[in-house]
Amino acid sequence: MTLAKKLNDIDAKKTKRNPCAYMEMYNSLTPEDRKALDAAWSKGYSANEVLMALRSEGIKSSNEAIRRHRLGACPCQEKK
Ligand SMILES: [Zn+2]
Fold first, then answer.
1. Residue 7 domain flag
2. Which of 20, 30, 47, 60 could bridge 76 with an S-S bond, Cβ 3.0-4.6 Å?
3. In sequence order, what are the residues at sequence separation of 6 or more whose Cβ sits closer than 8 angstroms to the Cβ of residue 75?
4. Spacing, Cα 15 to ligand 1 middle (Å)
């Protein structure tokens, strides 16, 4: 990473307000886990089922974060 990129990243983090907790969690997953998580939603798993699976793997998330993201009420979807 270049110094310029690093400094820009700091700025981006500061201006990023109220990030989507779901996407923060999602972005921290391995590509394999992301795929599995996407698949779980398309299979119609409930937020509770997914949340329990996440928690059993020590991944922190919340019903509220999932609900907001899936309803499109989170900041990451406002921009799209
Ligand atoms: Zn979101």
1. no
2. 20
3. 17, 18, 19, 20
4. 17
